[in-house]
């Protein structure tokens, strides 16, 4: 069973998946190791993830480990249809994902994965596990746990836990150091700008670029935009992050003030209605709006529609809204994840570490079955360290080790001045 758009593109998808694997040495090594050991033999896995070349290599690895895996998309515009076709036809992994699927079909696909009765879920945004709790609670009895890939999903899971709704343990893969320090910063930094540039082909140098949110993703975007020659403004609500942005050399100001100056505005906050009516009313003619947060709620699209007298589509991923006074506001990728909707998502080299955490996280959940309490759990430091060591080895980088004397010194308190 599967629901994909273009079965005839399977060979093209396989070529791109194999290309991505050349930049994923940690996943490649894990795939080979786990194929020999089969530690997940017979385990039912359900994944709600972006169906990309990198995700395909994660899926291949989990199947090589013996798991029975079914996938759906975690965003209606992030599916790469050739990749979905390849997974179905060449790897015999059921996939329920079509690029551009409707809201209704999106949730039909989530339920198709839940019909597989997964013992472990892999999420990017927490849609799968939240829907399981909301409408399929009978599946909880056989659940071992889940993993969560992204900041937005971890926020949702912690809200579920605070409400007493989360009934299984979930590993916050997003919070692993080898994930958020690299995937969020370097991955989003490059891929978000890649999406903006592909969608618009507008030169960034000399333009004013506003980044709303200065978490690890925002830090990465700001740094890359500055590298392109843009004049970067950062908008924040957290004083420590705002202070850091200022000391990193960026202008920091309220979003309403920035909206009147910006040529580009990118949201990466994980919150809703960050850019709203008041901001649209002061934006420059031709301002480009994009979102790199997980859900398409960061830009108030209904408010933008209400202010507009008409829309046009001058380029594939650009919807141009003409306001009553004639100003044009250019929205990219329908306000969805611009790096996946208008480009190809994060580079494989950073997803290598993120998905290594996913694989090792699933193994950890299985080995700790029955020992972890319901709630959001940190990825064990040992897994983080293992991923970092494997990545360094793949990059042929060697580091020093402490001597026994140095270790003893760090563990003692008696030696002083």
TrEMBL record:
One of its GO terms (molecular function) is adenosylhomocysteinase activity. GO terms for biological process: L-homocysteine biosynthetic process; one-carbon metabolic process; S-adenosylmethionine cycle. Its EC number is 3.13.2.1. Residues 184-345 form the S-adenosyl-L-homocysteine hydrolase NAD binding domain. Belongs to the adenosylhomocysteinase family. NCBIfam families: ahcY, PRK05476.2-3. This is Adenosylhomocysteinase. The lineage of its organism: Bacteria, Pseudomonadati, Pseudomonadota, Gammaproteobacteria, Thiohalomonadales.
């Amino acid at each position: 069973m599967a629901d994909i758009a273009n079965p005839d593109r399977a060979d093209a998808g396989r070529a791109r998946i194999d290309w991505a694997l050349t930049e994923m040495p940690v996943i490649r090594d894990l795939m080979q190791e786990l194929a020999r050991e089969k530690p997940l033999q017979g385990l039912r896995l359900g994944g709600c993830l972006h169906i990309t070349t990198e995700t395909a290599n994660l899926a291949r690895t989990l199947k090589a480990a013996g798991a029975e895996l079914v996938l759906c998309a975690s965003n209606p515009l992030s599916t790469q249809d050739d990749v979905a076709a390849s997974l179905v036809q060449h790897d015999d992994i059921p996939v329920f994902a079509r690029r551009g699927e409707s809201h209704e079909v999106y949730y039909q696909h989530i339920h198709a994965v839940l019909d597989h009765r997964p013992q472990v879920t892999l999420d990017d945004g927490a849609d799968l596990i939240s829907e399981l709790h909301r409408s399929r609670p009978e599946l909880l009895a056989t659940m071992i746990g889940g993993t969560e890939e992204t900041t937005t999903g971890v926020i949702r899971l912690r809200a579920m836990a605070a409400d007493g709704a989360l009934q299984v343990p979930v590993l916050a893969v997003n919070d692993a150091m080898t994930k958020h320090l690299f995937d969020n910063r370097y991955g989003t930094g490059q891929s978000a700008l890649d999406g903006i540039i592909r969608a618009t082909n507008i030169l960034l140098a000399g333009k004013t670029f506003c980044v709303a949110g200065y978490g690890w993703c925002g830090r990465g975007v700001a740094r890359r935009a500055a590298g392109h020659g843009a004049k970067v403004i950062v908008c924040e609500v957290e004083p420590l992050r705002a202070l850091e942005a200022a000391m990193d050399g960026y202008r920091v100001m309220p979003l309403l003030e920035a909206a009147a100056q910006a040529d580009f505005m990118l949201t990466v906050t994980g919150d809703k209605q960050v850019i709203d009516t008041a901001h649209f009313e002061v934006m420059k003619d031709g301002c480009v709006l994009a979102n790199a947060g997980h859900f398409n709620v960061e830009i108030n699209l209904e408010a933008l529609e209400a202010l507009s007298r008409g829309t046009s589509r001058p380029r594939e991923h650009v919807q141009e809204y003409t306001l009553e006074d004639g100003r044009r506001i250019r929205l990219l990728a329908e306000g969805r994840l611009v790096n996946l909707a208008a480009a190809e998502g994060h580079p494989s080299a950073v997803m290598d570490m993120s998905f290594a955490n996913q694989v090792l996280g699933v193994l950890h959940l299985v080995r700790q079955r029955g020992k972890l309490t319901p709630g959001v759990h940190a990825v064990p430091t040992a897994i983080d360290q293992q991923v970092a060591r494997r990545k360094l080895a793949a990059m042929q980088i060697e580091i020093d080790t402490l001597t026994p004397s140095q270790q003893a010194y760090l563990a003692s308190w008696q030696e002083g001045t």
